[in-house]
Amino acid sequence: MGSEPSDRRRDKAANLGVTPQGEDFSAWYNELVLKAELADRPPKVKGAMVIRPYGYRIWELLQEQLDRRFKDTGHVNAYFPLLIPMSYLQREAEHVEGFSPELAVVTHAGGEELEEPLVVRPTSETVIGEMYAKWISSWRDLPVLINQWANVVRWELRPRLFLRTTEFLWQEGHTAHADRDDAMAETMRMLDVYEEVARDVAAIPVVPGEKTPGERFAGAVATFTIEGMMRDGRALQSGTSHYMGTNFARAFDIMFQDPDGVRQHCHTTSWGMSTRMIGAVIMAHGDDKGLVLPPRLAPHQVVVVPIGRDDAATAAAEELATAARKVGVRVHVDRREASPGFKFNDWELKGVPLRIELGPRDLAAGTAVLVARIGEAGKQTVNLDGLAASLPARLDAYHDELLGRAEAFLAARRAGVDDWDAFATRVVDGWADALHCGRPACEDDIKAASGATPRCIPSAAPPEEGACIRCGLPSAWGRRLVFARAY
User: Fold this and answer.
1) Angle in degrees, CA 210, 216, 218, rounded to 5
2) What is the pLDDT of residues 328-345, one digit of tens each?
3) What's the CATH number for 300-397?
4) Which residues, in sequence order, are CB contacts of 93 under 8 Å at separation 6+?
5) Which of 47, 264, 296, 328 could cysteine-pair with 159, CB 3.0–4.6 Å?
6) Which CATH class name applies to 25-285?
7) pLDDT class of 377 with cuts at 50, 70, 90
8) What is the CATH number of domain 414-484?
């Protein structure tokens, strides 16, 4: 294969840069998603998204981490239909009202108008509820613990790749239980799973807590969330877990006979995490050079760049990669016919945690140059002997450093506030912990005046009484809420 013309390589190198975050965070994000080859926009379908292989691999790795935890907690996977009869959604009035503006409806099929319109699922509570009503008859059938990996469609007016798209990928768990206590334990168990994945896999520190009624999932009795801080100080809802009470069980007649022979309605839950989490990773860690990927979600944890035209460097790189794979490292050898500088910039843009440079002089000395995407160490000259075996520990240390950096950023941009001026200043680029009266009208007033919404009532917030940050009425929650501008 011939080498790429030098002018084309220069054009590519010039095109690698992105708008600095401080100049325009939104432009930075949009450019980075495209230039790092995470996703692209298809023609003519507003809000749709093509997930490219590099972006899809991140999703696969997230799937693996979630799916293992679901199965470890007793859940099994199933699949339910994409098309749902409109009448099913209408059985739970609050649910259909909440989703009505986002529905995509099929009215014609096979060249004919349908007797009943079909909704392209925005979520699957209704069709799953219908099936649970068929499958559950006795207390011995409970609990039912099912997860689905699927796509859903919600018609977005202001789409943004990964964050808000008309069609997105996710998992949705749906469970049925004999009583409230068991269902609530499930709701909180899955919230804990999401918090663990965010922290231990994505290196994102999150604040778990309950949503206010105005932010609650349509049809739920209680909604719980994990909220992550992005590098512009905004919040991103990164996973939710809902206790449905008996709302859907009553709508779909999901009942069981208890040990005393009495028929009871099941208590149900639902919980989900989506490809929006890729957006969270981008915005929680990225910098002006591009992506900064956590090692446990990086398609390539290590990239080896052989330098020079000496075949010995390429052979040594392949040998190093083979040894690294044997200890469980995802490693890629960059054999492209392009300059080392172009490759270095490209892999920095794509957020690879560790880069190894290997040239003739390094080989002669029995060393390599190791470069971490973040951190104070910079370039290090390391011995080739034992390098592959050391990579898992180095990647774990990188994860810890990335998590620590995100924790420090969150701490610096989050503060308790007790007066409106301090609140309005804090939510410009961070989070405010404040007391609130609990009135939806006051929430709306706060949003209109500051752009901030109540993200959650943090689970770990200590009891506290006092006056609402906006209207001065007594606090309704007995704890401070997290307020922030959000995606």
Assistant:
1) 150
2) 999 999 999 999 999 999
3) 3.40.50.800
4) none
5) 47
6) alpha beta
7) low
8) 3.30.110.30
